[in-house]
Write a structure and sequence with these properties.
The complex is a heterodimer of chains A (about 120) and B (about 120). By secondary structure, chain A is mainly β. Chain A contains no helices and eleven strands. In chain B, the strands form two sheets. In chain B, strands 2, 4, 5, 6, 9, 10 and 11 form a seven-stranded mixed sheet that branches. In chain B, strands 1-3-8-7 form a four-stranded antiparallel sheet, with no helix packed on it. Classes of the chains: A mainly beta (about 120), B mainly beta (about 120).
């Protein structure tokens, strides 16, 4: 079945450094790759997403890259701040025009930014 | 906009009883809602996809008679854990897609419900 692998499971970085989280998906039909951030005790929230027709997308300190050939996509956070500490989930989905789709989530990465 | 509310946030019940969890889209219509189970320090495991007015689609390994899902309206889906046992203790979280923004792909999550079965 479909599978999304995410690495690393935990990541500690010094404030100001960069953090990179990587995901690999198995379903070649996947065309939409969102990243969700879940702070302790809160609901997951979308922070950035990318569709299969582009290779990179950036939003301020956050960027996502996609390699369709290798079925890899990565989240890059630059100039990390303590408030970036959270669990990050990647996901892969196959959006169709009818709007019906299913998400497969990665196993999550617990990011800790040390002040 | 696009707020999803889940209730209750915490529930403790005795083994053998049934528990209902509600997931409501407060300011939008959600034709599709998803139910997930999240174990401590683990990912979101999709349990089922709930479509308004039709039967839910369950993932492999999820007992549909154990986890009853009803999506009777465009703003409400319910998950009922029947004859709960301690191994059903977990964090259950729902999400919805905005029917008016179906091509954006964004999921809107509820706050989650922590079920403890004694």
């Amino acid at each position: 079945g479909e599978n999304v692998e995410q690495h690393p499971s935990t990541l500690s970085v010094q404030e100001g450094d960069s953090a990179v989280i990587k995901c690999t998906y198995s379903d070649s039909a996947s065309n939409y790759f969102p990243w969700y951030k879940q702070e302790l005790g809160k609901r997951p929230q979308l922070i950035i997403d990318i569709r299969s027709n582009v290779g990179e997308k950036k939003d301020q300190r956050i960027a996502v890259t996609l390699n369709k050939t290798a079925k890899h996509f990565s989240l890059h956070i630059t100039e990390t701040q303590p408030e970036d500490s959270a669990v990050y989930f990647c996901a892969a989905s196959n959006l169709v025009t009818s709007g019906t789709y299913k998400y497969i989530f990665g196993t999550g990465t617990r990011l800790k930014v040390l002040a | 906009g696009a707020v999803v509310s889940q209730h209750p946030s915490r529930v403790i019940c005795k083994s053998g009883t049934s528990v209902k969890i509600e997931c409501r889209s407060l300011d939008f219509q959600a034709t599709t809602m998803f139910w997930y189970r999240q174990f401590p320090k683990k990912s979101l495991m999709l349990m089922a996809t709930s479509n308004e007015g039709s039967k839910a689609t369950y993932e492999q390994g999820v007992e549909k008679d154990k986890f009853l899902i009803n999506h009777a309206s465009l703003t409400l889906s319910t998950l009922t854990v029947t004859s709960a046992h301690p191994e059903d203790s977990s964090f259950y979280i729902c999400s919805a897609t905005h029917s008016g923004r179906s091509n954006t792909g964004e999921l809107f999550f509820g706050e989650g419900s922590r079920l403890t079965v004694l």
